[in-house]
Amino acid sequence: AGMQITMGTGASQGPSGVMMTPAAMPPPSQIQKAKAEWLCPTAVANILKSSLGPSGLDKMIVDNVGDVTISNDGATILRQLDVQHPAAKVLCELSELQDKEVGDGTTSVVIYTAELLKNALELVQAHIHPNSVILGYKKALRWAQRYITEHLTFPVAQLGPDTLLNIARTTLSSKTVSADINYFSNLCVEAVRSVQTAKADAPGQFEYPIKAINILKAHGRSMNESVLVPGICLPMARAAQGMPRVVRPAKIALLDFGLQRMRMRMGIQVEVTDPMQLEAVREQSEVAVVRKRLEMIFQTGCNVILCTGGIDDLCLKPFVEANAIGVRRVNKDTLRHIAKATGGQVLLNLSNLEGEETFDAACLGEAEEVSEERVADDDCIFIKGCKTTRACSLLLRGPNDYMLDEMERSLHDALCALKRTLESDEVVVGGGAVDGALNIALEKYATTLSSREQLAISAFARSLLVIPKTLAVNAALDATELVARLRAAHALSQQPDTKTPELKWSGLNLVTGDVINNLAAGVLEPAMTKQKALQFATDAAVAILRVDDHFKLEPEPQ
Ligand code: ADP
After folding, report:
1. Residues 208-226: pLDDT tens digits?
2. Which of 47, 109, 326, 538 is geometrically suited to a Cys-Cys bond with 141, CB 3.0 to 4.6 A?
3. What are the boundaries of each domain within the chain?
4. Which of 237, 155, 34 is nearest to 527 (CA)?
């Protein structure tokens, strides 16, 4: 018997939750009623809380084979945890979803959800039906989304040339790279700008395929020696010094196998009387096969071969004769990436359907130039001017694998944030500014309703404050006082005849422990991060609230 699970709100009050039909009901011996562990989503959120914001701390996770991951990114942390509780699992998936759809805000979304659930529980315990809470939350979400769009967003162009840098800075401020935040923010902005491509279906509009930004990691040197280089860069050298340093234009064969001498099959018997003959047989059957393959490939005009396997020293001569570059042990994913950028095709072998070896020139990728150049004392292969997409590479340097991996994740978050900003052209102010403004506005909206959703909308408004509270706690500040000041500022700005409308950009300054104008301070985020985080968090909270009981089936005794 498998495991069938419904999740419990602990509020078994009638028909709100999923009921099992009698037909689907397993025999009573198999049902073990599980305790509704409400705290489990909260426990997951508590793990992440301390890593939110610029003063957030990192987590070190050691898996069962001893591999260590050090990260500040919510999705990465939750991916590594072995979460058992079904409701808590929803939170892990949520963070993953935010990571896929937006790329940033993965910690915030989990913290929001847990707080929404916590406040919903209080209402349910006060005998408010879960359905009323659900309706209230949905209403609050719709209203909040509209409020953000109408009152709290700006187009990027209105904010001046530093906006993009500020966006990158806000995302990177909580990560390992924050020591050199200006350097890395610049790097990310340049990288995103360099892959800008015009949209085919909408003239005048651009898209930013950040997949075309190839992130490479190389041990050694310090973090701020990371560089952005045009084209695709491979941190490896040519297979032999005799090969040319540059070929222009390049026709690239992408082989997912090695160019090594063929070993004769086991069990083949060759009778010879002279040791010299043995060598000749070997040469004929083992080396000639690879030579023939190379000849076939070079005949199509190919002048660069990248392969995932090795290249035998015996095969180097044909390369030099054909004036071609050969690179061995290219990573498989990189090879696929190059194939996409150059319009080539990765070949698993050269056999056609009849089993004969052929090589079709259509499989060749094309680029303006392939060259070997020195970057910071290391030889790298560059593929520039790729046929189908503009590409660039970020070559990251750092002391060890943990740092490099975390740098890659952090830069990826920043690149995603920049892409979202440039594509949607909308930003909001960070540091709890949106949460503070929404809290006051929603409280006011709740009092205009005389229905039972009023309490739920108020609870939704209260839940939003978890972000500024957590930001302040993590920065070792007085959260209660700061949040009170934040709310006071927003309440003032939302009065009908306010003299200080600029107070609506009030957010936390986590260094001085003040409430300041975060728009002027340049703490900016893409509006999409906030909008999606709120939407996903409400959806997940509602999904969990709809469930009123939770069963676990014990496996049938054998
Ligand atoms: P997430 O994974 O959810 O993006 P982060 O750890 O990156 O979490 O933290 C993001 C939060 O930190 C956002 O709410 C953002 O507004 C806030 N934040 C980032 N930089 C600053 C800053 N300089 N001052 C105040 N708040 C900041």
Report:
1. 888 888 888 887 788 888 8
2. 538
3. 232-389
4. 155
Please indicate whether residue 425 is annotated as part of the active site.
no
Distance from the alpha carbon of residue 332 to the mean position of ligand 1, in angstroms: 35
Query: Residues near 229 by Cβ (< 8 Å), separated by ≥ 6?
Result: 375, 380, 382, 392, 393, 395
Catalytic residue among 73, 435, 548, 549: 73
State how far the Cα of 114 lies from the Cα of 442, in Å rounded to an integer: 19
- Secondary element (H or E) of residue 381: strand 378-386
| 378 confidence band (pLDDT: 50, 70, 90) | confident
What lines the ligand 1 site, CB under 6 Å?
A: 52-54, 56, 74, 104-108, 170-171, 173-174, 430-431, 467, 471, 508, 510, 523, 525
Residue 208 phi, psi (nearest 5):
-130, 85
Three-state DSSP state, 368: strand
The answer for residues whose C-beta is within 8 angstroms of residue 409's C-beta and 6 or more apart is 71, 73, 76, 175
What single-letter amino acid sits at 5?
I
511 SS3 class: coil
Question: CA 195 → CA 149, 233, 244, distances in Å?
Answer: 28, 15, 29
Nearest to 462 by CA among 481, 487, 490: 487
Contact 371, 381 (CB under 8 A): yes
Minimum CA distance residue for ligand 1 atom 11: 53
Taking only the tens place, the pLDDT of each residue in 107-158 is: 999 999 999 999 999 999 888 999 999 999 999 999 999 999 999 998 887 7
Whether 73 is catalytic is yes
Under CATH, which architecture does the 232-389 domain have? 3-Layer(bba) Sandwich (3.50)
Q: How many Å lie between the centroid of ligand 1 and the Cα of residue 431?
A: 6
Q: Catalytic residue, from 107, 113, 342, 538: name it.
A: 107
Active-site residue 107, yes or no?
yes
- Expressed in angstroms and rounded, the spacing between residue 424 Cα and the centre of ligand 1 is 20
Strands of 28-111, DSSP E:
31-33, 59-62, 68-71
Helix residue ranges, H only, 283-424: 288-299, 316-321, 332-342, 401-424
The verdict on whether omega for the bond into residue 161 sits within 30 degrees of 0, i.e. cis, is no
Whose structure tokens read 């491509």?
Answer: 197
Is residue 475 within 8 A of residue 513, CB to CB? The reply is: yes
Q: Which of 47, 173, 175 to mutate to test the pocket of ligand 1 (most atoms within 8 A of CB)?
A: 173
Q: How far is the CA of 53 from the centre of ligand 1 (A)?
A: 4
What is the Cα gyration radius of the chain? 30
* Whether the predicted interface score ipTM is above 0.85: yes
Pocket probe for ligand 1: among 47, 71, 170, the residue whose CB has the most ligand atoms within 8 Å is 170
Catalytic site residue 538?
no
Which of 107, 174, 477, 505 gets mutated to test ligand 1 (max ligand atoms within 8 A of its CB)?
174
pTM of full prediction above 0.90: no
Contacts of 32 (CB under 8 A, 6+ apart): 551, 552, 553, 554
Measured CA to CA, the distance from residue 324 to residue 322 in angstroms comes to 5
